[in-house]
Amino acid sequence: MISPVDLAQPLAHLALPPWSASSHLTITRVRAVVTAPSGPPVVIVVVETSEPGLIGYGCATFTQRFDAVVAAIETHIGPMLIGRDPRDISEINQLVHYSGYWRSGPVLNNALSGVDQALWDIAGKRLGAPVYQLLGGKVRAAAAVYRHAGAATIEETVDRAEELVGTGVRH
What we know:
- There is one protein chain.
- This protein is an alpha+beta fold.
- 41% of the residues lie in helices and 13% in strands.
- It starts with a helix and ends in a 5-residue tail after the last helix.
């Protein structure tokens, strides 16, 4: 298995700030923010660190049980992470996974996914590189996306679908 450090080697040519073992960066707070900009609740994990302004964000959305995900993050996962080094992404992932009551269930998996994304966000910000570079570089130049054309009636849905197709949406 290739470690994330091995995958980051293509970044060696960049003048990245060092992230040495002497850096006393720790996680100081983990919280969930629930928002619904245009529909179902979206759960965002916010991981704050001891470095002022260095905050990681991740998505932990599980719309059917968003309140359970929030509880898992704020009551169970967050307290376990306070004081830990956010560089230890794999260790934190294993700690959360194996200490969870809902191991491998959608509640814990969504919560853990959000934490994992937030930790990678912190790593990318600290190293001054996008996360995709830390994970080995781009895989493709573009990706197809899906746009939903739902509406109140079948006729309105067809109209919305035609409108989306007219803007270039294919899926």
